[in-house]
Write a structure and sequence with these properties.
This protein is α/β, with parallel strands linked by helices. The protein has helices at residues 2-21, 31-41, 64-72, 88-95, 143-160, 165-191, 206-212, 230-243, 257-265, 286-301, and strands spanning 24-28, 45-49, 75-78, 107-109, 196-200, 214-219, 247-251, 269-273. The chain is globular and about 60 Å long.
Length: 305
Amino acid sequence: MHRLMTAMAVCALCLVGVQAQAALRVVTTTPDLAALTRAVGGSHVDVYAIAKGSQDPHYVAAKPSYVRKVNRAQLLIYNGLELEVAWLPLLIQGARNRAITPGSAGLLDASLAVEKLEVPEGGVDRSQGDIHPQGNPHYLLDPRNGALVAGSVVERLRQLDPQHADDYDAALARFTSDLAQRTEEWEQRLSGAGPVSLIAFHRTWSYLAEWAGVHVANYIEEKPGIPAGPRHLVRLVDQMQAEGIRTVVLAHYNPTRSGKSLADRGKADLLVLPASVDAFDDVQEYVDLFERIVSALEAVRSGKP
């Protein structure tokens, strides 16, 4: 009897272990990619985002704790277009995880699913600033691209975890249907007011601007990644006055000093927008990101930012 009970207990522990290991271990480089993966993966995935919502994803420290996460990952999803070029190669090299080597099913470049903006023509060198030679990496600030990336994530989840393929397909259908409906609603809200022209800190909003019909007239950075000098700020103030620009936009992780100074000198409003999921407490899902942005743009168009 004692042996039987012992055997049953061992079997129960084994079942618990199998259940605990059932979820696919997924590491993403950004919280946006994590939100999309959770939306289509549900309980079949255990997702960890390296960059936090408060961080500029260009600049993330390659911590040993992140190396350990990448070492255990069965799937690593990254933004691509050199957004993570300063830190992701170090994590992959340090992790020594054969499951996520280039060309393997465990490594997914999410940017392959979308059409790129601002791909430079001709040669690129450091005199042009911090240029992304493969295109602007902030493509998830267009909700239409979110649907495309979610589809590519599901394709890879089906490959790595075929026994749950039907669940992934069903979750994708629900997610894309809801996102399409919300995108149509956001577009209707955005079209209900006049055009918006603004000054931005960095080329963060190019995809959003194309989708939402926003005109980014200029940038606080004199060149990408290069802080503005005094003469550039003077030129921006002159442009704002000449063109009637009344809004300066920062991503939530941008330094506020130069933006506030420009807004004060140009008699404009300073608008801080979330550039990713988890930027603010009320932006925890991918759709939350656009609800917050669209509401802010509506307020700008109505003159009440």
